[in-house]
Design brief:
With about 90 residues, the protein is of the alpha+beta class. The chain has 2 helices and 4 strands. Helix 1 crosses helix 2.
């Protein structure tokens, strides 16, 4: 299992969240700010099975390409993909 941390601008997060939820990918959205975008952004916590990682990456890429910022060298999304040893829903 993997945990994907996706940091995305607030203006784009709803499109990505809907695209993921339409494919039954559960997310937790956290409001955040930081050095990546220097403006309001959200961090999505996305827990997926190993075989779903590429699908999620493709969805993120499709959304971020569509919503690409006009400035050069600025990325719409930053992702961290982490191994998960254990997951429980209570």
């Amino acid at each position: 299992m993997k945990m994907i941390l996706a940091i995305i601008q607030d203006s784009h997060v709803n499109v990505l969240a809907k695209a993921l939820m339409d494919r039954d990918i559960r997310i937790t959205r956290l409001a955040s700010t930081g050095g990546f975008f220097k403006s309001g952004n959200s961090t999505l916590l996305i827990g997926v099975e190993d075989e779903q990682v590429e699908m999620v990456k493709n969805i993120v890429e499709a959304v971020s390409t569509k919503e690409r910022l006009e400035e050069e060298n600025v990325h719409a999304v930053n992702m961290f993909i982490l191994n998960v040893d254990s997951y429980e829903r209570i």
